[in-house]
Protein backbone atom coordinates (compact mmCIF):
# COMPACT_ATOMS: atom_id res chain seq x y z
CA UNK A 1 0.00 0.00 0.00
CA UNK A 2 3.07 2.25 0.17
CA UNK A 3 3.06 3.17 -3.51
CA UNK A 4 -0.68 3.76 -3.69
CA UNK A 5 -2.29 7.18 -3.61
CA UNK A 6 -5.88 8.36 -3.49
CA UNK A 7 -7.25 11.87 -3.87
CA UNK A 8 -9.18 13.77 -1.21
CA UNK A 9 -12.32 13.36 -3.31
CA UNK A 10 -11.91 9.58 -3.47
CA UNK A 11 -11.30 9.49 0.29
CA UNK A 12 -14.53 11.40 0.91
CA UNK A 13 -16.50 9.15 -1.47
CA UNK A 14 -15.19 6.05 0.30
CA UNK A 15 -16.12 7.51 3.67
CA UNK A 16 -19.68 8.39 2.58
CA UNK A 17 -20.42 4.97 1.05
CA UNK A 18 -18.88 3.25 4.07
CA UNK A 19 -21.18 5.23 6.38
CA UNK A 20 -24.16 4.28 4.22
CA UNK A 21 -23.11 0.60 4.37
CA UNK A 22 -26.08 -1.42 5.55
CA UNK A 23 -27.37 1.53 7.61
CA UNK A 24 -29.55 2.85 4.79
CA UNK A 25 -31.47 -0.44 4.96
CA UNK A 26 -31.41 -1.34 8.66
CA UNK A 27 -32.03 2.27 9.69
CA UNK A 28 -31.05 4.33 12.72
CA UNK A 29 -32.77 5.15 15.98
CA UNK A 30 -35.76 2.80 16.08
CA UNK A 31 -36.03 3.26 19.86
CA UNK A 32 -36.49 7.02 19.36
CA UNK A 33 -39.42 6.37 16.97
CA UNK A 34 -40.58 9.64 15.35
CA UNK A 35 -37.57 11.41 16.91
CA UNK A 36 -35.07 9.19 15.09
CA UNK A 37 -34.06 12.09 12.88
CA UNK A 38 -32.89 13.99 15.99
CA UNK A 39 -30.83 10.94 16.97
CA UNK A 40 -29.08 11.01 13.58
CA UNK A 41 -28.10 14.66 14.07
CA UNK A 42 -26.88 14.00 17.62
CA UNK A 43 -25.00 10.92 16.40
CA UNK A 44 -23.07 13.06 13.91
CA UNK A 45 -22.29 15.63 16.63
CA UNK A 46 -21.07 12.88 18.99
CA UNK A 47 -18.92 11.39 16.23
CA UNK A 48 -17.18 14.66 15.30
CA UNK A 49 -14.63 14.57 18.16
CA UNK A 50 -13.94 10.89 17.43
CA UNK A 51 -13.24 11.41 13.72
CA UNK A 52 -11.08 14.42 14.58
CA UNK A 53 -8.97 12.09 16.72
CA UNK A 54 -8.71 9.57 13.86
CA UNK A 55 -7.70 12.32 11.43
CA UNK A 56 -5.20 13.81 13.89
CA UNK A 57 -3.55 10.44 14.33
CA UNK A 58 -3.09 10.02 10.57
CA UNK A 59 -1.84 13.59 10.14
CA UNK A 60 0.76 13.13 12.91
CA UNK A 61 2.13 10.09 11.07
CA UNK A 62 1.83 10.75 7.32
CA UNK A 63 2.16 7.74 4.99
CA UNK A 64 1.57 5.42 7.95
CA UNK A 65 -1.54 3.44 8.89
CA UNK A 66 -2.86 2.48 12.33
CA UNK A 67 -0.71 -0.65 12.53
CA UNK A 68 2.50 1.25 11.75
CA UNK A 69 1.54 3.87 14.34
CA UNK A 70 0.83 1.27 17.04
CA UNK A 71 4.21 -0.41 16.45
CA UNK A 72 5.99 2.94 16.66
CA UNK A 73 4.17 4.16 19.77
CA UNK A 74 4.02 0.97 21.83
CA UNK A 75 6.89 -1.14 20.56
CA UNK A 76 6.88 -4.50 18.82
CA UNK A 77 5.08 -6.64 21.42
CA UNK A 78 2.32 -4.33 22.69
CA UNK A 79 1.96 -2.83 19.22
CA UNK A 80 1.28 -6.27 17.77
CA UNK A 81 -1.23 -7.10 20.52
CA UNK A 82 -3.15 -3.87 19.87
CA UNK A 83 -2.94 -4.53 16.14
CA UNK A 84 -4.53 -7.96 16.68
CA UNK A 85 -7.32 -6.28 18.66
CA UNK A 86 -8.09 -3.96 15.74
CA UNK A 87 -7.76 -6.75 13.18
CA UNK A 88 -10.44 -8.63 15.11
CA UNK A 89 -12.66 -5.53 15.19
CA UNK A 90 -12.39 -5.04 11.41
CA UNK A 91 -13.09 -8.73 10.82
CA UNK A 92 -16.03 -8.77 13.24
CA UNK A 93 -17.52 -5.64 11.67
CA UNK A 94 -17.18 -7.23 8.23
CA UNK A 95 -19.10 -10.33 9.34
CA UNK A 96 -21.90 -8.18 10.77
CA UNK A 97 -22.21 -6.13 7.57
CA UNK A 98 -22.29 -9.28 5.44
CA UNK A 99 -24.91 -10.81 7.73
CA UNK A 100 -27.04 -7.64 7.40
CA UNK A 101 -26.90 -8.20 3.65
CA UNK A 102 -27.73 -11.91 4.01
CA UNK A 103 -30.72 -11.26 6.26
CA UNK A 104 -32.13 -8.61 3.95
CA UNK A 105 -31.74 -10.59 0.74
CA UNK A 106 -32.87 -13.93 2.19
CA UNK A 107 -35.94 -12.45 3.93
CA UNK A 108 -37.00 -9.74 1.49
CA UNK A 109 -35.47 -10.11 -1.98
CA UNK A 110 -35.01 -13.89 -2.43
CA UNK A 111 -36.97 -15.57 0.39
CA UNK A 112 -36.84 -19.01 -1.26
CA UNK A 113 -33.08 -19.00 -1.85
CA UNK A 114 -30.63 -20.51 0.68
CA UNK A 115 -28.80 -17.75 2.56
CA UNK A 116 -25.33 -19.18 1.85
CA UNK A 117 -25.92 -18.96 -1.91
CA UNK A 118 -26.58 -15.21 -2.02
CA UNK A 119 -23.07 -13.80 -1.41
CA UNK A 120 -21.28 -16.27 -3.70
CA UNK A 121 -21.01 -13.60 -6.40
CA UNK A 122 -20.38 -10.65 -4.06
CA UNK A 123 -17.56 -12.18 -1.97
CA UNK A 124 -15.27 -13.12 -4.92
CA UNK A 125 -15.75 -9.60 -6.33
CA UNK A 126 -14.75 -8.09 -2.98
CA UNK A 127 -11.69 -10.35 -2.87
CA UNK A 128 -10.65 -9.23 -6.35
CA UNK A 129 -11.08 -5.52 -5.56
CA UNK A 130 -9.24 -5.88 -2.25
CA UNK A 131 -6.24 -7.27 -4.12
CA UNK A 132 -6.23 -4.04 -6.13
CA UNK A 133 -5.81 -2.04 -2.93
CA UNK A 134 -7.22 1.26 -1.68
CA UNK A 135 -6.51 3.04 -4.97
CA UNK A 136 -8.83 0.75 -6.97
CA UNK A 137 -11.44 0.96 -4.22
CA UNK A 138 -11.22 4.76 -4.26
CA UNK A 139 -11.90 4.86 -8.01
CA UNK A 140 -14.87 2.52 -7.57
CA UNK A 141 -16.33 4.73 -4.84
CA UNK A 142 -15.84 7.89 -6.91
CA UNK A 143 -17.84 6.33 -9.74
CA UNK A 144 -20.57 4.62 -7.68
CA UNK A 145 -21.42 7.48 -5.32
CA UNK A 146 -23.15 9.48 -8.06
CA UNK A 147 -25.58 6.62 -8.65
CA UNK A 148 -26.31 6.14 -4.92
CA UNK A 149 -26.85 9.80 -4.06
CA UNK A 150 -28.85 10.36 -7.26
CA UNK A 151 -31.13 7.47 -6.34
CA UNK A 152 -31.62 8.74 -2.77
CA UNK A 153 -32.51 12.22 -4.04
CA UNK A 154 -34.87 10.87 -6.73
CA UNK A 155 -36.78 8.54 -4.41
CA UNK A 156 -36.79 10.77 -1.33
CA UNK A 157 -37.42 14.21 -2.79
CA UNK A 158 -39.21 13.55 -6.07
CA UNK A 159 -41.25 10.36 -5.64
CA UNK A 160 -41.98 10.31 -1.90
CA UNK A 161 -43.83 13.63 -1.70
CA UNK A 162 -47.35 12.27 -2.37
CA UNK A 163 -46.95 9.74 0.47
CA UNK A 164 -45.56 12.08 3.11
CA UNK A 165 -47.63 12.80 6.24
CA UNK A 166 -46.18 15.66 8.32
CA UNK A 167 -48.17 14.53 11.37
CA UNK A 168 -46.01 11.37 11.53
CA UNK A 169 -43.09 13.39 12.89
CA UNK A 170 -45.15 14.66 15.85
CA UNK A 171 -45.09 14.89 18.82
CA UNK A 172 -41.43 15.79 19.22
CA UNK A 173 -39.64 14.45 22.34
CA UNK A 174 -42.90 13.05 23.72
CA UNK A 175 -41.11 10.20 25.55
CA UNK A 176 -38.34 12.44 26.87
CA UNK A 177 -34.69 12.78 25.93
CA UNK A 178 -33.42 9.34 27.02
CA UNK A 179 -34.67 7.29 24.01
CA UNK A 180 -33.32 9.97 21.67
CA UNK A 181 -29.90 9.98 23.33
CA UNK A 182 -29.66 6.18 23.46
CA UNK A 183 -30.47 6.02 19.75
CA UNK A 184 -27.90 8.76 19.12
CA UNK A 185 -25.30 6.72 21.01
CA UNK A 186 -26.20 3.72 18.86
CA UNK A 187 -25.83 5.90 15.74
CA UNK A 188 -22.42 7.06 16.99
CA UNK A 189 -21.23 3.44 17.09
CA UNK A 190 -23.19 2.29 14.04
CA UNK A 191 -22.18 3.63 11.58
CA UNK A 192 -20.31 6.90 12.24
CA UNK A 193 -17.45 5.84 14.54
CA UNK A 194 -16.96 2.63 12.57
CA UNK A 195 -14.87 4.85 10.30
CA UNK A 196 -11.96 4.04 12.66
CA UNK A 197 -11.43 1.24 10.10
CA UNK A 198 -10.05 3.82 7.65
CA UNK A 199 -7.05 4.45 9.90
CA UNK A 200 -6.01 0.90 8.95
CA UNK A 201 -5.76 1.67 5.23
CA UNK A 202 -5.65 5.47 4.79
CA UNK A 203 -1.87 5.80 4.60
CA UNK A 204 -2.20 6.80 0.94
CA UNK A 205 -3.81 10.25 1.27
CA UNK A 206 -1.81 13.03 -0.37
CA UNK A 207 -1.29 15.62 2.40
CA UNK A 208 -1.45 15.87 6.19
CA UNK A 209 -4.71 17.85 5.82
CA UNK A 210 -6.32 15.13 3.69
CA UNK A 211 -7.46 12.94 6.63
CA UNK A 212 -9.39 15.91 8.08
CA UNK A 213 -11.12 16.55 4.75
CA UNK A 214 -12.02 12.90 4.24
CA UNK A 215 -13.26 12.34 7.78
CA UNK A 216 -15.14 15.58 8.42
CA UNK A 217 -16.72 16.01 4.98
CA UNK A 218 -17.43 12.28 4.74
CA UNK A 219 -19.16 12.33 8.13
CA UNK A 220 -21.23 15.43 7.34
CA UNK A 221 -22.28 14.29 3.85
CA UNK A 222 -23.00 10.73 4.97
CA UNK A 223 -24.90 11.97 8.02
CA UNK A 224 -26.93 14.39 5.90
CA UNK A 225 -28.18 11.71 3.52
CA UNK A 226 -28.89 9.30 6.38
CA UNK A 227 -30.94 12.12 7.93
CA UNK A 228 -32.90 12.50 4.69
CA UNK A 229 -33.53 8.74 4.48
CA UNK A 230 -34.60 8.62 8.14
CA UNK A 231 -37.01 11.54 7.72
CA UNK A 232 -38.46 9.90 4.61
CA UNK A 233 -39.09 6.65 6.50
CA UNK A 234 -40.75 8.46 9.42
CA UNK A 235 -42.92 10.72 7.24
CA UNK A 236 -44.12 7.80 5.10
CA UNK A 237 -44.44 4.98 7.64
CA UNK A 238 -44.96 6.68 11.01
CA UNK A 239 -43.33 5.99 14.38
CA UNK A 240 -44.89 2.57 14.94
CA UNK A 241 -43.71 1.08 11.66
CA UNK A 242 -40.21 2.52 12.14
CA UNK A 243 -39.84 0.71 15.46
CA UNK A 244 -41.42 -2.56 14.30
CA UNK A 245 -39.77 -3.14 10.90
CA UNK A 246 -36.29 -4.60 10.58
CA UNK A 247 -35.76 -2.93 7.19
CA UNK A 248 -37.75 0.35 7.28
CA UNK A 249 -36.24 1.84 4.11
CA UNK A 250 -37.41 -1.11 2.04
CA UNK A 251 -40.94 -0.86 3.47
CA UNK A 252 -41.06 2.92 2.93
CA UNK A 253 -39.90 2.70 -0.68
CA UNK A 254 -42.21 -0.25 -1.44
CA UNK A 255 -45.32 1.92 -0.92
CA UNK A 256 -44.11 4.49 -3.47
CA UNK A 257 -45.48 4.12 -6.99
CA UNK A 258 -46.74 6.34 -9.77
CA UNK A 259 -49.64 4.49 -11.34
CA UNK A 260 -48.48 1.67 -13.61
CA UNK A 261 -45.39 3.57 -14.73
CA UNK A 262 -43.17 3.27 -11.64
CA UNK A 263 -43.66 0.31 -9.34
CA UNK A 264 -41.44 -2.09 -7.38
CA UNK A 265 -39.06 0.74 -6.44
CA UNK A 266 -37.85 -1.37 -3.53
CA UNK A 267 -35.59 -3.09 -6.06
CA UNK A 268 -33.57 0.13 -6.01
CA UNK A 269 -33.04 -0.42 -2.27
CA UNK A 270 -31.46 -3.78 -3.08
CA UNK A 271 -29.13 -2.12 -5.59
CA UNK A 272 -28.09 0.51 -3.05
CA UNK A 273 -27.48 -2.16 -0.40
CA UNK A 274 -25.28 -4.28 -2.68
CA UNK A 275 -23.11 -1.31 -3.67
CA UNK A 276 -22.70 0.10 -0.15
CA UNK A 277 -22.09 -3.31 1.41
CA UNK A 278 -19.53 -4.00 -1.34
CA UNK A 279 -17.59 -0.84 -0.39
CA UNK A 280 -17.86 -1.32 3.39
CA UNK A 281 -16.87 -4.98 3.28
CA UNK A 282 -13.94 -4.22 0.97
CA UNK A 283 -12.61 -1.59 3.39
CA UNK A 284 -12.97 -3.99 6.35
CA UNK A 285 -11.18 -6.82 4.54
CA UNK A 286 -8.50 -4.44 3.31
CA UNK A 287 -7.90 -3.40 6.92
CA UNK A 288 -7.67 -7.04 8.06
CA UNK A 289 -5.29 -8.01 5.24
CA UNK A 290 -3.08 -4.98 5.85
CA UNK A 291 -2.95 -5.66 9.58
CA UNK A 292 -2.02 -9.32 9.18
CA UNK A 293 0.72 -8.41 6.70
CA UNK A 294 2.15 -5.83 9.14
CA UNK A 295 2.14 -8.20 12.12
CA UNK A 296 3.92 -10.97 10.22
CA UNK A 297 6.10 -8.55 8.21
CA UNK A 298 4.81 -9.75 4.85
CA UNK A 299 5.81 -7.81 1.75
CA UNK A 300 2.37 -8.17 0.16
CA UNK A 301 -1.13 -8.81 1.48
CA UNK A 302 -2.89 -9.66 -1.79
CA UNK A 303 -2.69 -13.44 -1.33
CA UNK A 304 -4.51 -13.02 2.02
CA UNK A 305 -7.66 -11.52 0.47
CA UNK A 306 -9.28 -14.76 -0.72
CA UNK A 307 -8.82 -16.86 2.47
CA UNK A 308 -9.88 -13.95 4.70
CA UNK A 309 -13.00 -13.40 2.55
CA UNK A 310 -13.79 -17.12 2.85
CA UNK A 311 -13.36 -17.01 6.64
CA UNK A 312 -15.53 -13.90 6.92
CA UNK A 313 -18.26 -15.47 4.78
CA UNK A 314 -18.25 -18.67 6.88
CA UNK A 315 -18.30 -16.76 10.16
CA UNK A 316 -21.21 -14.59 9.00
CA UNK A 317 -23.42 -17.66 8.52
CA UNK A 318 -23.21 -18.65 12.18
CA UNK A 319 -22.89 -15.35 14.03
CA UNK A 320 -26.68 -14.94 14.51
CA UNK A 321 -29.56 -17.37 14.64
CA UNK A 322 -32.21 -14.93 13.35
CA UNK A 323 -32.94 -11.41 12.10
CA UNK A 324 -34.31 -10.52 15.54
CA UNK A 325 -31.04 -11.54 17.21
CA UNK A 326 -29.09 -9.53 14.62
CA UNK A 327 -31.08 -6.37 15.35
CA UNK A 328 -30.86 -6.88 19.11
CA UNK A 329 -27.08 -7.13 18.89
CA UNK A 330 -26.74 -4.20 16.46
CA UNK A 331 -28.71 -1.73 18.57
CA UNK A 332 -28.38 -3.05 22.15
CA UNK A 333 -24.94 -4.70 22.39
CA UNK A 334 -22.77 -3.32 19.58
CA UNK A 335 -22.70 0.33 20.79
CA UNK A 336 -21.11 -0.69 24.12
CA UNK A 337 -18.87 -3.38 22.64
CA UNK A 338 -17.60 -1.11 19.84
CA UNK A 339 -17.03 1.86 22.17
CA UNK A 340 -13.76 0.27 23.32
CA UNK A 341 -12.39 0.21 19.75
CA UNK A 342 -13.96 3.48 18.60
CA UNK A 343 -13.40 5.79 21.58
CA UNK A 344 -11.47 4.39 24.57
CA UNK A 345 -8.46 2.90 22.75
CA UNK A 346 -8.19 5.80 20.24
CA UNK A 347 -8.21 8.26 23.18
CA UNK A 348 -5.31 6.40 24.81
CA UNK A 349 -3.43 6.13 21.50
CA UNK A 350 -3.76 9.84 20.68
CA UNK A 351 -2.62 10.83 24.20
CA UNK A 352 0.55 8.76 23.80
CA UNK A 353 1.04 10.10 20.26
CA UNK A 354 0.66 13.73 21.36
CA UNK A 355 3.09 13.26 24.26
CA UNK A 356 5.70 11.70 21.98
CA UNK A 357 5.13 14.40 19.37
CA UNK A 358 5.53 17.13 22.02
CA UNK A 359 8.75 15.56 23.32
CA UNK A 360 10.10 15.22 19.78
CA UNK A 361 9.35 18.88 18.98
CA UNK A 362 10.91 19.97 22.29
CA UNK A 363 14.09 18.03 21.53
CA UNK A 364 14.30 19.57 18.06
CA UNK A 365 14.00 23.06 19.56
CA UNK A 366 16.74 22.29 22.07
CA UNK A 367 19.02 21.03 19.31
CA UNK A 368 18.38 24.08 17.13
CA UNK A 369 19.18 26.46 20.00
Report the CATH C-level class.
Mainly Alpha
Largest sheet: none
Helix count equals 12
Strand proportion: under 5%
Poorly predicted runs: none
CATH architecture: Up-down Bundle
Rg over CA atoms, rounded to whole Å, is 21 Å
Give the beta-strand count.
0
Mean pLDDT: 88
The CA-CA distance between the termini, in Å, is 38 Å
Along the chain, the helix and strand elements come as HHHHHHHHHHHH
The helix/strand class is: mainly alpha
Q: How is the quaternary structure best described?
A: single chain
| Share of helix, binned | over 70%
Number of domains: 1
CATH topology: Amino acid/polyamine transporter I
Account of the protein in words:
- The protein has one domain (8-363): Amino acid/polyamine transporter I (Up-down Bundle), CATH 1.20.1740.
- The chain has helices spanning 8-20, 23-26, 36-60, 66-109, 122-159, 178-189, 210-237, 239-244, 248-254, 266-295, 305-318, 323-368.
- It has 369 residues and is mainly alpha-helical.
- Helix content is 72%, strand content 0%.
- It starts with 7 loop residues before the first helix and ends with a helix.
- The mean pLDDT is 88.
Helix and strand topology:
Blueprint lengths: L7 H13 L2 H4 L9 H25 L5 H44 L12 H38 L18 H12 L20 H28 L1 H6 L3 H7 L11 H30 L9 H14 L4 H46 L1
Brief summary:
It is built from 12 helices and no strands. With 369 residues, it is mainly alpha-helical.
Overview features:
369 residues; mainly alpha; 12 helices; Amino acid/polyamine transporter I
Amino acid sequence: MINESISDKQGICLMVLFIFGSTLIVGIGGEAKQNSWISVILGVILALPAVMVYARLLSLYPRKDLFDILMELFGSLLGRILSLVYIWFAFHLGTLVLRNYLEFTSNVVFPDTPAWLLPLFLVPLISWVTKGGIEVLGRCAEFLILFIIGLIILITISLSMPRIEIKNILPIMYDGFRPVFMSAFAAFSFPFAETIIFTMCFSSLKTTRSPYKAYILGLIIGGFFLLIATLRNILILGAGAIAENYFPSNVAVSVIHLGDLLQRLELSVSAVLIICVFIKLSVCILGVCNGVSKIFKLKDFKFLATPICAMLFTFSLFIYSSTMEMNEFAFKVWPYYAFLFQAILPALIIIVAEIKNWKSNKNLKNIST
